[in-house]
Write a structure and sequence with these properties.
Strand content: 35-45%
CATH architecture: Roll
Radius of gyration: 16 Å
Keywords: Oxidoreductase
Shape: globular
Helix content: 10-25%
Low-confidence stretches: none
Bound molecules: flavin mononucleotide
CATH class: Mainly Beta
Number of strands: 13
Number of helices: 3
Protein name: FMN reductase (NADH) RutF
Distance between the termini: 49 Å
Structural class: mainly beta
Number of domains: 1
Organism: Salinicola rhizosphaerae
CATH topology: Pnp Oxidase, Chain A
Length: 179
């Protein structure tokens, strides 16, 4: 199956941008959740750790992710037209490291050390993820080094587990202020 919608190339504005090192230093203090974005099916699958994910709208249910244009997973999503965003729970930081290429599995397959099933599209859904959002690509926009994928959410589930957080180049778990 292939998905042929071309990515729209948005034009950057002409305003002078701040230098990238200053930008990256400040971005270290933007706390995020951590997801593993997957595509494919049980026979052919790709996946990458992605923190750039956010809700877009509830009606229609939609999210967006930002994926580097050099990413194997991003290329596979463009070809396939579907993806599943798996929000990691607080005990799944090792899975984030594997899917970021920070640690190899024994057999070289990023998927082999965790358990996967599927929701609607066939893209791998991580068992016990805090939440999973299974999507059809609604729109793709290339901007700078990244592609923004808008995902129309066709299925979602949650384990109600506490999510994992990332900021200042490290993984964190949360605790409520009023505990
Ligand atoms: C905490 C964390 C968050 C990341 N977030 C993103 C992201 O939002 N978008 C992205 O393109 N890469 C992100 N990465 C980097 C990719 O996970 C990494 O480059 C990965 O090896 C790409 O795999 P692929 O080329 O097989 O798709 C992140 C890495 C880490 C450790």
């Amino acid at each position: 199956m292939s998905f042929t919608q071309p990515a729209t190339a948005a034009q950057p504005s002409l305003a002078p941008n701040c230098d990238s090192q200053t930008f990256l230093d400040a971005m270290r203090y933007v706390g995020t959740g951590v997801t593993v974005v997957t595509t494919g099916d049980a026979d052919w699958r790709k996946g990458s750790t992605v923190s750039a994910m956010c809700s877009l709208s509830a009606e229609p249910a939609s999210i967006l992710i930002c994926v580097n244009r050099d990413s194997n997973t991003g290329a596979a999503i463009k070809a396939r037209g579907t993806f599943c965003v798996n929000v990691l729970n607080a005990e799944q930081s090792d899975i984030a490291r594997v899917f970021a290429g920070m640690r190899d599995t024994a057999d070289g397959d990023r998927f082999s050390e965790s358990r996967w099933d599927e929701l609607a599209t066939g893209a791998p859904a991580l068992e016990n993820a805090a939440a999973s959002f299974d999507c059809h690509v609604g729109r793709m926009i290339d901007y700078g080094t990244h592609t923004i994928f808008v995902g129309d959410v066709v299925a979602a589930r949650t384990s109600r587990a506490e999510p994992l957080y990332y900021y200042n180049r490290d993984f964190h778990t949360g605790s409520p202020l009023d505990a």
